[in-house]
Design a protein that fits this description.
Helix 2 runs parallel beside helix 6, helix 2 (25-48) packs parallel to helix 7 (223-231) and helix 6 (200-207) packs parallel to helix 7. This protein starts with a helix and ends in an 8-residue tail after the last strand. It folds into three domains: 4-52 and 173-231, no CATH class; 63-170 and 235-287, P-loop containing nucleotide triphosphate hydrolases (Rossmann fold); 290-364, Roll (Ubiquitin-like (UB roll)), CATH 3.10.20. Helices cover 31% and strands 24% of the residues. It has 372 residues and is α/β, with parallel strands linked by helices. It binds guanosine-5'-triphosphate and magnesium ion. Magnesium ion is lined by residues 75-76, 115.
Length: 372
């Protein structure tokens, strides 16, 4: 029996040899599912040996950005230029990989930036301690790719991230899978499935050992999207791109790079000369999609000076966790004014999703101490 690595290579070769067309679509879909299953198995074994992912970086700030790029493109220089030298307090050595954190302020939010060792091709299979680096990337809120004029192969970098389960600039597919003990496999969809017709969805599910259960599609998903949902360990992270050492580039060269790097909209910087950094930071801050929440104590005006900073999609429950006192226990309701309120002063519960610049009053149960 060949090793998992050999089996993966075999299936990859077969995919490469197969021309993609209507007739082979199913075959390829099935093969891709096979690879995903083999990769899951490889991960499980690596974890068992204690070698795999499972170490993380101490997070601080409101969000974490990972600096990802080939060696020597200027990641460490950028971190030093972006963050005050003092904030690069210590090199946390994770026995094999050094990740240097720095802290940056943007519009009231503090953003942690992680400088990581350069990625090399083959990182996702473990080259250059790549798997450890990639496991840290998986835990970040935003990827900042950095290339320089000598290392512009962004696609290969993206491929490394993808094979470690990172999905960039896209949302989780609208597919819901439930497993049952028996009753076979049923599939329903609210839209016409153009990529997974003719039983392909069921065949892929079977590759994952799903024989009894229910799959609901709420979008016209591809085979890869279904595989992602079945594999279940995918993370969805946004990414932006900087081109460093750009002080050496002519207008013509920039234009060519821009075309090469599409659909990314690269920001040309010089980390060493501190050029373009404001634009980069602005783009980073916006990409993190913070929401600012103004807390209003009952009967008093809201505190507009010092908003609570949350990430987009956060709920009242997330807000409670960030406020002093035992609000998780004493919470009774919240009142909302602002973008997420259907009308001023609307009463909402813990699951209510907040929007940027909401004003919130927390109402606590009678008899509880008032939180200040
Ligand atoms: N011309 C130019 N050189 C730069 C710039 N920024 C960094 N460098 C140089 O690029 C080289 C590599 O910089 P580092 O910051 O160590 O690169 P790195 O990406 O952290 O490298 P690894 O940690 O090995 O992955 C150094 O010699 C820097 O001085 C820049 O804006 N322009
Ligand atoms: Mg470095």
């Amino acid at each position: 029996m060949s090793s998992i690595e050999e089996q993966i290579t075999e299936v990859e070769d077969e995919i490469r040899k197969t021309q993609y067309n209507k007739a082979t679509q199913r075959h390829i879909g099935r093969l891709r599912a096979k690879i995903a299953v083999l990769r899951l198995e490889r991960e499980t074994r690596a974890k068992g040996k204690g070698a795999g992912p499972g170490y993380s970086v101490r997070k601080s700030g409101h969000a974490t950005v990972g600096l990802v790029g080939y060696p020597s493109v200027g990641k460490s220089t950028l971190l030093t230029s972006l963050t005050s030298a003092e904030s690069v307090a210590a090199a946390y050595d994770f026995t094999t990989v050094s990740i240097i954190p720095g802290m940056l302020r943007w519009s009231g939010a503090s953003i942690q930036i992680l400088d990581m060792p350069g990625l090399v091709p083959g990182a996702s299979t473990g080259r250059g301690r790549g798997r450890e680096v990639l496991s840290v990337v998986r835990s970040t809120d935003l990827v900042l790719f950095l290339v320089d004029p000598e290392h512009t192969n962004l696609r290969a970098l993206i491929a490394e991230l993808e094979s470690s389960g990172v999905r960039l600039n896209t949302r989780p597919p609208k597919i819901v899978v439930t497993t049952h003990d028996r009753g076979g496999l049923t599939i329903a969809s609210t839209v016409k499935l153009t990529h997974l017709a003719g039983g392909l969805a069921a065949e892929i599910a079977r590759e994952f050992g799903l024989h009894n259960g229910h799959i609901v599609f709420r979008e016209d998903a591809t085979a890869d999207q279904l595989i992602d949902v079945l594999a279940g360990n995918r993370v969805y992270i946004d990414a932006i791109l900087g081109v460093n050492k750009s002080e050496t580039l002519s207008e013509e060269e920039r234009k060519r790079l821009r075309a090469d790097l599409a659909p990314f909209d690269p920001i040309f910087i010089s980390a060493r000369n501190r050029v373009g950094l404001d634009t980069l930071v602005e783009k980073m801050g916006r990409a993190l999609r913070f929401v600012r929440i103004y807390v209003k104590p009952p009967g008093r005006p809201p505190d507009r000076e010092d908003p609570v900073i949350l990430r987009t999609g956060s709920t009242i429950s997330d807000l409670l966790r960030r406020l002093p006192g035992d609000l998780q226990r004493t919470f009774r309701a919240a009142q909302i004014w602002g973008p997420s309120a259907r009308f001023p002063g609307q009463t909402v519960g813990r699951a209510h999703v907040l929007r940027d610049e909401d004003v919130v009053t927390v109402v606590i149960a009678r008899g509880s101490q008032v939180a200040t």
